[in-house]
């Protein structure tokens, strides 16, 4: 008698499509006519382009890659602003991240030593610093002031969250006679910078607005590695190592580490690949089930019964559909997350007790330590380039853009592109498959011999 035919667990192939090419052009304030004061230089043509093929960055379901042309970063032979009459401002917003001070230092040093600008002003405590009602002082920054700040974490200027009206910010820029404003921050800051640029344009003000994208979650659209991410992964691996030590130091030990990642699981995934002692990794992009054939709790129990220890890495935004979130938002407009780690700890305790499995669980949340550390060597190099290229772009009269690195090239990206959506981890990718291979977590699921789709 023929055996029962098994049902394939493979997903039906998704319908492919072709994405529309986005606008990558960069706005300028006018023709650059003033010879650059750079004492030594290999200049880049004013409209020099870099051609890069992209596919998943636009839409993972499209068939073919698109060839996009991005403006190349670097010093131009002519500047739009007269350096001797140019005042710049730097503002840092949002949460802390390794490398902010390095970017500040690079901007101040480049503007002073290579362009001889009239002044570089530090705006204190984020966008609040532009608003008279907060009373924050303005800091005229010199190379001496910033000479050692890269040795410390955080931001020497201070930061804040919350929305400030673009009209008020532009009013302050006019009052202070500022020609260039450098905005260092994440997705919300880039959206605010875009509104400021549009307000300047509406008033016909010749003010350059340049963004330097900062997000420890690595979730800004078209910014494939934000500064501080490498340092954050370094610190996170140390926490995972501690969790592994705790787990192996007890019979049936479980170490759980909570990492940053509101909507994107890049830190959790990269840490898992860097510290190959993680047995389960949970990210916002991958569906999370507690029980059933795909349930994390029974899978953990099987792991414990077989190996007697386990390490779980949890991105803070994972499994939010299981949390009783109240829908409230923080000062930046982000939805306040539910505590998935508390739910996991309670459910693990309940299930293991019902199954008669003794265990010990140690929970580690290193989030604020990771955010506050100084940048490592790789990030310092990256921050230095970002700061220098931001000054080059501003002095050439570019505006409404951010500096970034893509496929080894430093480029200019329009603010409209980086604010279009949040960048997320693609779980139907070779990268995520490598993460699943590293953890082996799918091997502990209930299954009937069929292969498991890594997207499930």
TrEMBL record:
Cofactor(s) it depends on: Mg(2+)
Domain Phosphofructokinase: residue ranges: 87-393
Any one GO biological process: fructose 6-phosphate metabolic process
One of the record's GO cellular component terms: cytoplasm
SUPFAM superfamilies: Phosphofructokinase
Catalysed reaction, written as an equation: beta-D-fructose 6-phosphate + ATP = beta-D-fructose 1,6-bisphosphate + ADP + H(+); beta-D-fructose 6-phosphate + diphosphate = beta-D-fructose 1,6-bisphosphate + phosphate + H(+)
Family matches, as Gene3D superfamilies: 3.40.50.450
Keyword Metal-binding in annotation: yes
Basic residues bias locations: 1-18
GO MF, any single term: ATP binding
Region (Disordered): 1-22
Protein role: Catalyzes the phosphorylation of D-fructose 6-phosphate, the first committing step of glycolysis. Uses inorganic phosphate (PPi) as phosphoryl donor instead of ATP like common ATP-dependent phosphofructokinases (ATP-PFKs), which renders the reaction reversible, and can thus function both in glycolysis and gluconeogenesis. Consistently, PPi-PFK can replace the enzymes of both the forward (ATP-PFK) and reverse (fructose-bisphosphatase (FBPase)) reactions.
PANTHER family given in the database record: ATP-DEPENDENT 6-PHOSPHOFRUCTOKINASE 1
Name the UniProt record assigns to this protein: 6-phosphofructokinase
Organism of derivation: Desulfovibrio ferrophilus
Lineage: Bacteria, Pseudomonadati, Thermodesulfobacteriota, Desulfovibrionia, Desulfovibrionales
